[in-house]
Amino acid sequence: MKKNLHPEYNEVEVHCACGNTFTTKSTKKEIRLDICSECHPFFTGTQKQIERGGRADKFKQKYGLK
């Protein structure tokens, strides 16, 4: 097998814009994120679900059918 083929795989600290930090493994020396699981709306439960309705619902609403 060839020597020095694979890059080094080290423990690195990940920094998020919200201030959260955690440790993971990567080939990079440092990782900076804009959004993480601590501040993402989907994971924090603050995401709003919007009912858009389908094509049939839009038709019924437009023409007043039940």
TrEMBL record:
<dbReference type="Pfam" id="PF01197">
    <property type="entry name" value="Ribosomal_L31"/>
</dbReference>
<dbReference type="InterPro" id="IPR042105">
    <property type="entry name" value="Ribosomal_bL31_sf"/>
</dbReference>
<dbReference type="GO" id="GO:0005840">
    <property type="term" value="C:ribosome"/>
</dbReference>
<dbReference type="GO" id="GO:1990904">
    <property type="term" value="C:ribonucleoprotein complex"/>
</dbReference>
<comment type="subunit">
    <text>Part of the 50S ribosomal subunit.</text>
</comment>
<feature type="binding site">
    <location>
        <position position="36"/>
    </location>
    <ligand>
        <name>Zn(2+)</name>
    </ligand>
</feature>
<protein>
    <recommendedName>
        <fullName>Large ribosomal subunit protein bL31</fullName>
    </recommendedName>
</protein>
<keyword id="KW-0862">Zinc</keyword>
<feature type="binding site">
    <location>
        <position position="39"/>
    </location>
    <ligand>
        <name>Zn(2+)</name>
    </ligand>
</feature>
<keyword id="KW-0479">Metal-binding</keyword>
<dbReference type="GO" id="GO:0019843">
    <property type="term" value="F:rRNA binding"/>
</dbReference>
<dbReference type="GO" id="GO:0006412">
    <property type="term" value="P:translation"/>
</dbReference>
<comment type="similarity">
    <text>Belongs to the bacterial ribosomal protein bL31 family. Type A subfamily.</text>
</comment>
<dbReference type="InterPro" id="IPR027491">
    <property type="entry name" value="Ribosomal_bL31_A"/>
</dbReference>
<feature type="binding site">
    <location>
        <position position="16"/>
    </location>
    <ligand>
        <name>Zn(2+)</name>
    </ligand>
</feature>
<keyword id="KW-0687">Ribonucleoprotein</keyword>
<keyword id="KW-0699">rRNA-binding</keyword>
<dbReference type="GO" id="GO:0046872">
    <property type="term" value="F:metal ion binding"/>
</dbReference>
<dbReference type="InterPro" id="IPR034704">
    <property type="entry name" value="Ribosomal_bL28/bL31-like_sf"/>
</dbReference>
<feature type="binding site">
    <location>
        <position position="18"/>
    </location>
    <ligand>
        <name>Zn(2+)</name>
    </ligand>
</feature>
<keyword id="KW-0694">RNA-binding</keyword>
<keyword id="KW-0689">Ribosomal protein</keyword>
<dbReference type="InterPro" id="IPR002150">
    <property type="entry name" value="Ribosomal_bL31"/>
</dbReference>
<dbReference type="GO" id="GO:0003735">
    <property type="term" value="F:structural constituent of ribosome"/>
</dbReference>
<comment type="function">
    <text>Binds the 23S rRNA.</text>
</comment>
